[in-house]
Predict the structure.
Amino acid sequence: FPVTISAILITTDGEVVDNYDASGLSRKQSAVGGYIEYVHTRLGMTFIVNEEGMMLGLKPNMLASNLAEMLLLGNVLIVSQEEIEEEDREC
């Protein structure tokens, strides 16, 4: 059975969507608008961003950037590292 990844989606407009279904690559890519990149912070949080955000000129995501304590561009997913590892094991 597939693993369900529950994430928090933060848009560049500051909209926060709790319990976003980020199961599978296509849902993650759809949320961030392209190829994904995992960003791990020193606080132990894991963010999924568009890996081409700078090249595409995506807007800064101020709310997510404040949480990550680093500049993040475009829509961002916040996920639990444990769920990502579990999903990877299922593939």
Observations:
- Residues 9 and 78 are 7 Å apart (CA to CA).
- Residues 81-90 form the longest helix (10 residues).
- The chain is about 25% helix and 25% strand.
